Fold this protein.
Amino acid sequence: MPRDPIGPATVPGAFDDHAASYDRLVGRNPGYHEHLRLSAHRLGRRSAPPRSTTGPRLLDLGCGTGASTAALLAVAPDAEIVAVDGSAEMIAEARRKDWPDRVRFVHSRLEDLPTTGITGPFDGILAAYLVRNLPDRDAGLKAMHDLLAPGAPIAVHEYSVQDSLRARAVWTAVSWGIIIPMGRRVTGSADLYRYLWRSVLDFDGAGRLAARMRAAGFVDVRHEPVTGWQRGIVHSFLGNRPA
């Protein structure tokens, strides 16, 4: 099969093209929102008491149209949340929804975040489906580490099938049997969804991603599975900046 033209440098633009239909497509994915809430809950389990009496300050990286933001609010309703995404159209879709005043959406890639004036420390970071798409994964994880307060946790919510032949087979079957045809039917183009399939197959195994997190400075790193058909395919990778 030919390689798709989408890569880390062009992912935000590809999501721009599909932003209007994104919520409709992920809404058909059983467990999508539940699994984001599960990773947000696991993040909360690791959190220390917030530094502010008004609630924790959280960073939602790769927020897309706001599904991960809503997951954080469900777990930490008093949180101040800075939600960031590299796709301008995905951010525009997120901003059209109703949010508390303490939620702020910022259009930026992770590597450009310092130019926006957004700085740490944060009391927690949720990065959903982001690390796989970064042009430099190690630098990106190190940047996340440096944005956290001492002792604060991170949850990397991500696909990882490299270590399991069964997971790779299930992922390929679901991708070509459901995700890619549905994406083509709803949007008229399957490029982004072929990229999704291939990028997941090519991405780190769970052990490799955990090792990257440790190399970036995170401690107490572990990964936990999600439920349903994505068990063994989607994971919560958890760690903390050292206290």
In short: The beta strands are 57-61, 80-85, 103-107, 124-128, 153-159, 219-225, 234-240. The longest strand covers residues 153-159.
